[in-house]
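Worked example 2:
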Amino acid sequence: MTAPTGAGGLGTRDPYDRALDYGRLSFNDANNWVTSFIWDVPFGENSSSRVVQSVIAGWQLNAINTVYSGAPLTVLSGKDPLVNGDNLETADLVGNPIISGSRSKAAKVAQWFNTAAFAQPAVGTFGTGGDSIFTGPGLWNMDFGIYKTFKIREGMHMQIRGQFYNVMNHAALGNPNTTLSNGTFGRITTAGSPRVVELGAHLEF
């Protein structure tokens, strides 16, 4: 939970309602799991066959797997109803912002939350929507690498490598637009990179 310091740390929005600014920190990912491994594949190293040693032995695999839940989001008015220049007033919360039930990815991209649950606050008011009242998209990403080193002669080695970013090609959705006055309010308009493959060779001598 945050202390009542207001969005952006610029002070409490309403000095008479400090609870309005209590909420989760913007970087509070409730669940965050990162695992990694490096495996020197042990097969073929002791084979008497040069073919087996060349083709099977000497491979190394590695991966980093990242899974985390989404970040907390706050809906801003975007119209500065207090006319104080900070533009940090939230929208009025007039309904349930959560859309329940299973939906397709396309439907979530088009409307991540219930946009009808928000309204512009009256001039001179702070907005009734609190901080971090719902959560953006989470992420599941795996980067994978495979390497093999060939001995050419004494003191000289050739390494071939393949690196696969987002190897499962999961869509890493960005956060939806959370400014009520914006034309894309509630929509997700950004995403992370799709699967990227890099192949290369490295000569050491």
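The CA atoms of residues 91 and 200 lie 51 Å apart. The first helix runs from residue 50 to 55.
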